[in-house]
């Protein structure tokens, strides 16, 4: 693998990694977060919007992150507090994210397709990894921080227990609702970083539907990574590689571009169909009701 | 000193009064039995004490001071620990993670593993347990899981332990071990509330016993003043007969014959099993569980193919007949694990009552449709006949007590007048009244001239009902005893001791 292909792989893996890590945290507390795609898109949009208005990418970043936290709360409220169906809620988030960003784009920039360009984050050069925005490095740091949090700290232990057997956690004196909410909110916030990477780190404008399925590929990476952060990283790199190769092949122009574009999705399907039957999730995806 | 006192505790669920003004006093250092039929309110009472349910009224005192327990967290803080009827463990966490969950000793932001290991080691000494702490719960047998629960409770520093029907899931050997542990904890000054509906255990363990019936307290007495008859009457509300009058029944001809039946693994291989069952008799198969009883039953009902030998029913060779053909011929089966083989919990009662018989003429209308009307009236009739307590035939079976679920199974199996009933552990997990009812049903079947093969790990049950008893050990029939023979002889055979030592000759 050439160095530039390696660097492209890392770059393309980053948004998938954020989605996978976010999804992983949600699933660890027993909530399937189908809405990752919508969360990422919303964050990408608000990141650009706030930067556009203020001219400060850092504020854009915070704005996008806040949208992720907000989605996390909404999802937690609906699925944890009010026992809503997780698939329905997640699908709602995706549909809403698409609709909201299109509507506001139209209002603000007069086009539902794309925003005006905004200032983004500067790249930082690191040996081997090359010129990358800080998102890439943050992703790596998060992997190890989460791995440590989940498997070495008491709160990680409780989080895992709450997802797998909420009743047991409850009788052990753990506040099930609090930990479930925590997992979903932090997970959604992490996923929103993936959207911000795309809009503020990568393209520096907002394009409608720009996440193009990476939230779902993130879910696939999470399953392939067996619901551990380090596993998510490895799986994301695989999908990132598929994405990077796709771009290479595109440049070479040997196959019709429509076929080449399919590659990352084909890899996803192949990996999952060979694997998903054997992967047992660590949690029960049912609302926990007391009494 | 009174460790725990409850005064006038009432808890309602809608119209059901699960606990009706319960008073309870538990002295420090005693083992206090809480006895009652299924549905009497034992679990609800303990859940109220443990803060899982909020009582509608009533007061709870600990060491003489009133306390308000609103969550398990409060209860744990006050030194109350509970081992639940359905174990509360996280399957894919390790033993030690389950033990410390919610109470993790910390060093900085990490779980302090060294301290965890030290603390648990100390608990091993106190309880006499010895477990592999890094094993996942999912890989452990249920008896060991329960030990983890007990360690979990002790790790939280509980002085008062509530155990909700802890023996329901255990084998007899595991029960003995549990009782020994509880005595050991008592000697260390712990106060224990032991919930059960098994009189034998209560007599073996408790200092005093409180009986609940239909949500009300019937009374408390020191174990020295109690007899099984007194306690059973308090639980059931009427006299219970531990002796089952066995009328003389004229035995008919041989109905079922096994000739040198043997099987291959998986499971315990059967080795040359031969016996006859006549109509009008109950043949008991005694033995410690896991000595081939399940495999024998599978051969009889057609779920397992024997390697050698023959099974004859009414003189006909059925060794290779399908389960369906056997049902047609009149072999009925009350399975050992009713949830796995006997019923579908989320189906309604009427659906469960025709399961397997749905293609029989009375339930069919034309070629492809069920005669729902006939099925429902059949179900209503069975509910009446077998005194199954349910609001109507449409409720899912899951909502019934174990005793009523088992009645549904038996009602269905007896509905088409089989000539042989294979009953496996028919009263396991059932309360006194349901047990009595089912045992009487078996005797009634015998009276009608049916043959019954009774497989049970409960030696008292086997001896009370059977005409003859065979003892199984490691896939073989190791002897035949009359039901009146003493328990010691049974014990020797069940433990695989030679026939000579047990003082009987081998039957084969
Ligand atoms: N969560 C609940 N909701 C409604 N009814 C309940 C609930 N828990 C228990 N009950 C009812 O309360 C009564 C007592 O139940 P329980 O305490 O579990 O009996 P047991 O003595 O067998 O432990 C039963 O009639 C049961 O159906
Ligand atoms: Mg109970």
* Percent of residues in beta strands of chain A: under 5%
Average pLDDT of chain B, rounded to a whole number, is 88
Number of domains of chain B: 2
CATH topology heading of the largest domain in chain B = Rossmann fold
Which consecutive residue ranges of chain B, at least 5 long each, have pLDDT under 50? 500-508
What oligomeric state best describes the polypeptide chains here? Answer: heterodimer
Question: Quick one: overall form of chain A?
Answer: globular
Radius of gyration of chain A, in Å, reads 19 Å
- The CATH homologous superfamily name of the largest domain in chain B equals P-loop containing nucleotide triphosphate hydrolases
Shape of chain B: globular
**Tally of discrete structural domains of chain A:** 1
Structural class of chain A: mainly alpha
Give me the count of strands of chain B: 24
Helicity of chain A, as a percent range: over 70%
Q: Strand sequence of the main sheet of chain A, in spatial order? A: 1-2
What topology emerges from the helices and strands here?
The complex is a heterodimer of chains A (about 290) and B (about 500).
Chain A: H1 3-28, H2 36-54, H3 57-81, H4 86-109, E1 124-126, E2 130-132, H5 134-152, H6 154-164, H7 166-171, H8 176-203, H9 214-224, H10 229-252, H11 257-261, H12 263-275
Antiparallel strand pairs in A: 1-2
Chain B: E1 2-13, E2 16-27, E3 31-35, H1 42-49, E4 57-62, E5 65-67, H2 72-77, E6 80-83, H3 95-100, E7 106-107, E8 110-111, H4 113-127, H5 142-155, E9 160-164, H6 172-187, E10 191-196, H7 199-205, E11 208-213, E12 216-222, H8 228-236, E13 254-262, E14 273-278, E15 282-286, H9 293-301, E16 308-313, E17 316-317, H10 323-329, E18 331-334, H11 338-342, H12 349-354, E19 364-365, E20 369-370, H13 372-385, H14 402-414, E21 420-424, H15 432-447, E22 451-455, H16 459-465, E23 468-473, E24 476-481, H17 487-494, H18 499-502
Parallel strand pairs in B: 3-10, 3-11, 6-9, 9-10, 15-22, 15-23, 18-21, 21-22
Antiparallel strand pairs in B: 1-2, 1-4, 4-5, 7-8, 11-12, 13-14, 13-16, 16-17, 19-20, 23-24
The complex binds adenosine-5'-diphosphate (ADP) and magnesium ion (MG).
